[in-house]
Amino acid sequence: MGAFAFHRYTGVGAVTLPATLVQVGFRAFHASSVTMLDLSACAKLESVDEWAFRGCTGLRLATLGGCSRLRRLGPFTFQGCTGPTHLKLPPRLLQLNAKAFQGCASLPQVALPRSLESIDDQAFEGCTQLQRVDLSRCVALATIHAFAFARCTALASLDLSGCHALVSIARSALRGCEALRLVRLPLHFDLGALELPPTCLLEVGPGPGPGPGPGPGPGPGPGPLYGRAAHWAGALRNLAMPPGRSNPSRGTVQ
């Protein structure tokens, strides 16, 4: 499907795309009247270009769960789609590009796939109804970039304890998440200077019950608390240490 195919077209509602589809081009449905998007049969789809569905304010449901070849969503893919209440992502997605879902104000929850490696700048910024982000399978996630979940004002907790490959979270990734009460990080993670609201509790290591580890048996024991643990811009007030962990390896938490 080429660029601008249904750009600003107001005569389209529910859209089911065919199994033969390989590409959704630049601004293909930008600012159109699409209300439902079904790509569940699109097993050959390899590319969704930037602005593909940007500004489709009437869109309520987007299903991309059958797009097994799709590795990346282009920048601004669903930016400003204020209506979606249901979203299913491709199972082998590697990267959510910048502003992919920025301003999807009605989205209540999202489950991120096991294959995901990067959440780019402002990917979910301003998703003001987002209450749950399921990262329990994201064992390959390495980087969460600037403002990735900023201004997600309904988000109460974020569990990253199963993200064993995580090496970097931008300082501003959770800026403005005023309802945030719990952030759970993986063991052996360099905290950096993450911005959190004053009432947020930080936990290191898996939560109660079976952990989301990659294999059978118990996971690794508590490791050192690395890096700039005290430099939380005055936001951190509570820190829960897992059993077996004593003091941070360098510096103090205040």
Secondary structure layout plus pairing:
Elements: E1 14-16, E2 23-24, E3 36-38, E4 47-48, E5 61-63, E6 72-73, E7 86-88, E8 95-96, E9 109-111, E10 118-119, E11 132-134, E12 143-144, E13 157-159, E14 168-169, E15 182-185, E16 201-204, E17 238-240
Parallel strand pairs: 1-3, 2-4, 3-5, 5-7, 6-8, 8-10, 9-11, 10-12, 12-14, 13-15, 15-16, 16-17
Q: In percent, how helical is the residue content?
A: under 10%
- Class per helix and strand makeup: mainly beta
The sequence of SSEs as H and E is: EEEEEEEEEEEEEEEEE
Computed over alpha carbons, the radius of gyration is 19 Å
Overall shape: it is: globular
Lateral arrangement of strands in the main beta sheet: 6-8-10-12-14
Task: Note the gap between the termini.
Answer: 55 Å
Report the β-strand fraction as a percent range: 15-25%
SS elements, strand count: 17
Mean of residue pLDDT? 83
Low-confidence stretches: 209-235, 245-254
Number of helices: 0
The largest sheet, given as strand count, sense and whether it forms a barrel, is:
5 strands, parallel
